[in-house]
Specification:
This protein is an alpha+beta fold. The chain is built from 5 helices and 9 strands. A hairpin with a 5-residue loop joins β5 and β6. The protein starts with 5 loop residues before the first strand and ends with a helix.
Length: 190
């Protein structure tokens, strides 16, 4: 219901540098086909402080087997992610989207919702008034990849902008997957 030009999705376990939002907007204004942009993110400790040059995400890429991965995840920062470039998508921890892109990607009510609401009846609360940018079937994990697939199919591009930076405290990692609950692992592969 607003008239804003841009939407920022930001996880509560992420902290952006002071000029990151300005840099994200500048990146989106470079080209009319850019629908969303993502920053260079470093891993953070529990106090949301960067304590190494370990990358969290530098955009998202799609493998030849159609699996999506965060570029640079768990790599030390170097020259490889220092220039802006088009990527498949960005981590849902921090995405800025143009209004026109968001309007294109709003989901309409569909037949699968009866199944979704039977599994998650709490989603019925306010469903008729709620606009859906993220598919509620992905209420945890992988919703950013689904959004990237949908945006790409509508012709929107994603810009990785390393001039915008932040830190992200990620708790679900390949190294600790065996220690996560069965529910978290099931949602991650669903």
């Amino acid at each position: 219901n607003s008239s804003c030009k841009y939407f920022l999705m930001l996880n509560p376990d992420l902290l952006l540098n002071d000029d990151a939002i300005v840099q994200l907007v500048k990146g989106l204004e470079r080209n009319s086909t850019l629908g969303f942009t993502t920053p260079k993110l470093y891993r953070a400790n529990d106090e949301l402080k960067k304590d190494s040059s370990l990358l969290d995400a530098a955009g998202m890429f799609l493998s030849s087997t159609w699996r999506h991965f965060d570029r640079g995840s768990q790599q030390l920062d170097g020259e490889q992610y220092n220039k802006p470039e088009l990527v498949f998508g960005g981590t849902g921890a921090c995405l800025m989207l143009k209004r026109e892109c968001v309007e294109d990607l709003i989901l309409t009510r569909s037949e699968h919702e009866a199944d979704l609401f039977s599994l998650y009846p709490e989603l019925l609360n306010g469903a008729e008034d709620r606009k859906q940018l993220l598919d509620e079937a992905f209420f945890a994990f992988r919703e950013d990849a689904e959004l990237a697939f949908r945006a790409n199919s509508y012709g929107w591009s994603c810009l990785y902008n390393p001039l915008a930076q932040g830190v992200h405290r990620r708790s679900v990692l390949p190294s600790n997957r065996a220690n996560l609950s069965k529910m978290v692992n099931r949602l991650g592969v669903r």
